[in-house]
């Protein structure tokens, strides 16, 4: 067996990391659209240059036509300024056009990759991560990244280039005044570094808290019946309000930091412009500077205000995007289980994709290779179990013969569900091996394994899809005939009286159906592909006595043609089985027919009597449960 992969704790770093390094990891996604992004950046630079040329045109108007009293020159200059303005506006519009579609593609690709990866990650990962955290990473965080690609990424470059070009122009026009304007750069760089660190910590906290909020919201929506049933809505409201209050506090801290940064970014350059204006006016008065040059100088300085001021929020959004990238890659970096070599595929085995029209009675008994389902020395411990806790399963040996139905019984928490989860490899056994018809499942491609093994769990989850789609999930390519047969076996005839029959959409998690109805659909899903191996975890628990008897009768027919392990809590479910295995203390304590175990295992007899604490030998009183298939 492969070693169980320890999924990482959902990380909550403090944000002290390199934002640039985090953002650089996005390169593989940006690569395919780099041409568009570079073109958009070039277009934006041309647009900014058009904007910067306007003050130069003004200088020409003031020093030329205005000073020389030439009205036609003023009109010409005015027309030139108008043209430059129109050019700037249309180029900015073109930038949006160039980036919108490819960036939506990048966001969609990243989301699809995340979803694909989440589907491949082991159940142990999902046990540990809160669903809201995954939800917020695949929605809010990816939207933040798209905004970053569309806006700050381009404008950090373009505005940076504009500022450099603008200062070159200023220094050429009047280097003393230019140096006055450059004076705030040093304190601003120091302040930006100071705020960046604090802001990224706050951004990380806010994004994690919004994930926590999504988790509480999701749990409240899914558990609304319990909340209402126990009158817990006030408690839930308080818990939600407390979390929302914490998030509000963090957002306020972010706003406070951003406000302070912005105040410095706006006021320091304004002070410098004021100083340059006073100095410039004195120079014009002394005749050392032309009025036109001063107008051009100040217009250029004012044109640089937006690129300088925008740096504050561009840095803020970039930090949030870097945090979003970290959160995205925390999930993507979690290794998914290794995909086994597809060449080990069992070619002779019939696929569930093409189920036979009618089940063969005992198709697997005749084959010499078909040795059934075997567990040899299987052990399992949950990755997050305390180090000193004993393993849930240890040295489990069990052989289910081809075509045989084995019931698995044991006290609550004895590990029955855990054991059934090892067969379709929802969890990896930590020791020992499991074979299906002699082939080790650890060496089998998961896809193939899941074609061979079908499962129905105690909690019958249905998806937001039609009844038919939910059932046919169990058999890719299955059609109407398979659907009808599976519904018949599961005694799910009620679907035909639903408004649109098997096309009726069942709500989120099938909430519009009763527990028993959902369980019957989950059972139909398990049997629809006529699987070679069937794992049923207490499949009849939510059925009334009458329906249970009907389902049992139909299920007997299916079980006759498959090798099955059925977790049973009730004698009526045990009756479906050929033999029974008793799970106790993490091991198989006894195997035999129901009749044999009633007489040989006191623990089994007590379990079947529904009285686990009872003393005294198991004998005649339990004989009323006898009468299984053998
Ligand atoms: N995801 C998990 N992480 C850690 N421990 C777990 C996890 N799931 C189950 N356990 C523990 O493993 C043990 C076996 O649980 P399991 O659900 O397999 O028992 P069970 O026999 O199916 O119980 P029941 O009859 O009540 O359904 C229990 O002690 C349980 O607390």
From TrEMBL:
One of its GO terms (cellular component) is plasma membrane. Residues 373-610 form the ABC transporter domain. The keyword Transport applies. InterPro entries: AAA+_ATPase (IPR003593), ABC1_TM_dom (IPR011527), ABC1_TM_sf (IPR036640), ABC_transporter-like_ATP-bd (IPR003439), ABC_transporter-like_CS (IPR017871), P-loop_NTPase (IPR027417), Type_1_exporter (IPR039421). Residues 335-372, 611-630 are annotated as: Disordered. It is a multi-pass membrane protein. Residues 38-320 form the ABC transmembrane type-1 domain. One of its GO terms (molecular function) is ATPase-coupled lipid transmembrane transporter activity. Keywords: ATP-binding, Cell membrane, Membrane, Nucleotide-binding, Transmembrane, Transmembrane helix, Transport. This is ABC transporter ATP-binding protein.
């Amino acid at each position: 067996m492969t070693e169980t992969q320890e999924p990482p704790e959902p990380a909550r770093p403090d944000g002290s990391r390199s934002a640039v390094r985090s953002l650089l990891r996005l390169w593989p996604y940006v690569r395919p659209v780099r041409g568009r992004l570079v073109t958009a950046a070039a277009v934006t630079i041309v647009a900014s240059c058009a904007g910067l040329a306007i003050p130069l045109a003004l200088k020409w108007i003031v020093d030329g036509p205005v000073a020389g009293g030439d009205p036609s020159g003023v009109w010409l200059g005015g027309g030139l300024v108008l043209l430059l303005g129109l050019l700037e506006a249309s180029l900015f519009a073109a930038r949006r056009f160039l980036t919108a579609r490819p960036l939506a593609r990048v966001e969609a690709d990243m989301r699809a990759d995340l979803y694909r990866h989440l589907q491949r990650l082991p159940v142990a990962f999902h046990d540990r991560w809160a669903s809201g955290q995954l939800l917020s990473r695949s929605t809010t965080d990816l939207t933040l990244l798209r905004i970053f690609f569309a806006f700050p990424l381009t404008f950090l470059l373009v505005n940076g280039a504009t500022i450099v070009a603008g200062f070159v122009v200023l220094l050429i026009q009047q280097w003393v005044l230019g140096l006055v304007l450059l004076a705030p750069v040093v304190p601003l760089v120091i302040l930006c570094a100071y705020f960046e660190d604090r802001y990224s910590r706050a951004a990380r906290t806010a994004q994690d808290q919004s994930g926590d909020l999504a988790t509480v919201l999701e749990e409240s929506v899914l558990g609304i019946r319990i909340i209402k049933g126990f009158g817990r809505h006030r408690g839930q409201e308080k818990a939600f309000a407390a979390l929302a209050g914490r998030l509000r506090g963090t957002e306020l801290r972010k706003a406070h930091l951003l406000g302070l940064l912005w105040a410095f970014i706006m006021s320091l350059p304004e002070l410098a412009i004021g100083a340059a204006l006073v100095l410039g006016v004195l120079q014009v008065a002394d005749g050392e500077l032309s009025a036109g040059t001063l107008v051009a100088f100040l217009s250029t300085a004012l044109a640089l205000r937006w690129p300088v001021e925008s740096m504050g929020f561009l840095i803020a959004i970039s930090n949030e995007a870097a945090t979003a990238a970290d959160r995205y890659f925390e999930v993507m970096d979690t290794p998914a289980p290794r995909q086994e070599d597809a060449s080990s595929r069992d070619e002779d085995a019939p696929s569930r994709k093409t189920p036979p029209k009618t089940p063969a009675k005992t198709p697997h008994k005749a084959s010499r290779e078909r040795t059934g389902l075997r567990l040899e020395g299987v052990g399992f411990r949950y990755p997050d179990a305390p180090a000193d806790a004993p393993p849930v399963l240890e040295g489990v040996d069990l052989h289910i013969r081809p075509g045989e139905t084995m019931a698995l019984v044991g006290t609550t928490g004895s590990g029955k569900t855990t054991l059934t989860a090892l067969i379709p490899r929802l969890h990896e056994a930590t020791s020992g091996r499991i074979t299906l018809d002699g082939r080790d499942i650890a060496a089998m491609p998961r896809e193939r394994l899941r074609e061979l093994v079908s499962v129905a769990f105690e909690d019958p989850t249905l998806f937001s899809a039609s009844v038919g789609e939910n059932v046919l999930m169990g058999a890719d390519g299955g059609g109407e005939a398979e659907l009808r047969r599976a519904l018949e076996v599961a005694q799910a005839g009620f679907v035909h009286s639903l408004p649109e029959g098997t096309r009726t959409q069942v709500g989120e998690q099938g909430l519009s159906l009763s527990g028993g109805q959902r369980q019957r659909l989950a059972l139909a899903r398990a049997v629809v592909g006529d699987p070679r191996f069937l794992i049923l975890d207490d499949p009849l628990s939510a059925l009334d006595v009458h329906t249970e008897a009907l389902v049992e009768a139909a299920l007997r027919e299916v079980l006759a043609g498959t090798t099955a392990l059925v977790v049973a809590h009730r004698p009526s479910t045990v009756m479906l089985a050929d033999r029974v295995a008793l799970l106790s203390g993490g091991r198989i304590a006894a195997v035999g027919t129901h009749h044999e175990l009633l007489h040989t295992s006191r623990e089994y007899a007590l379990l079947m009597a529904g009285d686990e604490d009872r003393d005294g030998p198991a004998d005649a009183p339990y004989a009323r449960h006898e009468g299984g298939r053998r």
